[in-house]
Amino acid sequence: MRDLVIGIDASTTAIKAVAMRRDGTEVAQTRAAYPLSSPAPGHFEQDAEHWWTALLKALSEIAATVDPARFAGLSIAHQRETFTLIDASGTPLIPAILWLDERARPQVTRLSKGLGRDRIREWSGKPPDPTPALYALAWLNEHRSDLLRSAHAVVDVHAFLVHRLTGVLVTSTASADPLGIFSPATGNWHPELVKAAGLTEKQLPWLVAPGALCGVLTSEIARLTGLPEGLPVFAGAGDGQAAGLGMGITEPGRAYLSLGSGVVSGMFSDRYVTSNAYRTLTAPIPSGFMMETVLRSGMQLADWAVRTLNAGSAAELETLAKAVASGAEGLMVLPYWAGVMNPYWDEAARGVIIGAALHHGPAHIFRATLEGIAFEQALATAEMEASCGVRATAFVTAGGGTNCRLLLDILATVLDRPLSISPVNEAAALGGGMLAATGAGWFASAREAGIAMRMNPAETVQPVKALKDVYRKKMAIYRDIYPATRALHRRLLAD
Prior knowledge:
Strand order of the largest sheet: 17-18-16-15-21-22-23
Largest sheet: 7 strands, mixed
CATH architecture of the largest domain: 2-Layer Sandwich
CATH class of the largest domain: Alpha Beta
CATH superfamily of the largest domain: ATPase, nucleotide binding domain
Helix content: 25-40%
Radius of gyration: 22 Å
Number of domains: 2
Mean pLDDT: 94
Strand content: 15-25%
Number of strands: 23
CATH topology of the largest domain: Nucleotidyltransferase, domain 5
Structural class: alpha+beta
Shape: globular
């Protein structure tokens, strides 16, 4: 009886494989980690072979835990924008360049001038920024053109792993999209952006829709993992889009908020619109798009504060911060420790702590940090809603940040909307499972799967009415901090 599917999340740090039922409940989960390297400042890389080794390990452990005959298929969600080059045998030619990588900032500037910022945004759905692979590919074309020209293919994480599992060079449209050389409007590679990256379309994988059949497990992979030969592998999506699907974001007016290392928020749209206020991505369901905002320094900034302040654990610091009055007694934080994407797209931007006085201590700084994250999310949400003309009535939230109740209370109040906490720890893997369930024919569409398999909220956090006026006044000040310091960030970078 094939009553289970496998949802895989190939994240920046590990492969997570989750076996789940038709209702989305988890039966088993395995995890295999891999390292990340930074061989030079701003350079972030991984060995793609580590992804493969980890996937084999995770799948082998799933097969050892659950009767393999029960599986109807698998699908992969993955870290986006990350890519490598492969030869005809599928062997990596270079270390994979990660979405975190910043080496291509000069190429962002040059391509923006050459093609036009607005044109790039309209073509790809994404304002120019080092995150999409387009710019790192242009960097390779300048620095290692021999490798780029000789490569059999450029592959995202999804394409690399699916090729290894099935022997077919194919990827999902919702996986190709974040690379920045894809047109969400047409659902295909964009010729001008492919050319700007220094590629030919012959070097790119075949494209299929999320949930479509990519291929089946080969006999060799079946032997290595213990899974059945011929097990269908269905097209997945980038982890952000897959997490949105896993949280049930399948229709306009619903929004998700992922509180991870970065803070990622998204809304579904049934029409293609672009703006500097967000990135527009292909949705993991047919005929739709995800409008997404990103704050790079989310919970990793909270972790930084805990380490730097040396004031005990995160839980201890949160307890102290709860005793500080809302507004942190005049202290405010601009959370741009890792630069800013939407809406300013300024790689020179950096964090700001303003209003510091002698009576401020670690608890004030921690609370101001959480408030800064909330203010930034409110700014991003307001810009996104104004652009698309749709207001999110509530947010479904997931990720490590949901363990910080103070942050949830602040976010709900500043956003002035309830936050429904998802009980799912692995929302991206669940989204992958939904796409596998769709491909297996359990549901007529990924939208149906997204509704049938999503989990009911564990809890809903309501805005604190008594604090709305306090935060409304602080928000007015917060909006002015970056514009007032923009030129200083540039001068500091120049030094």
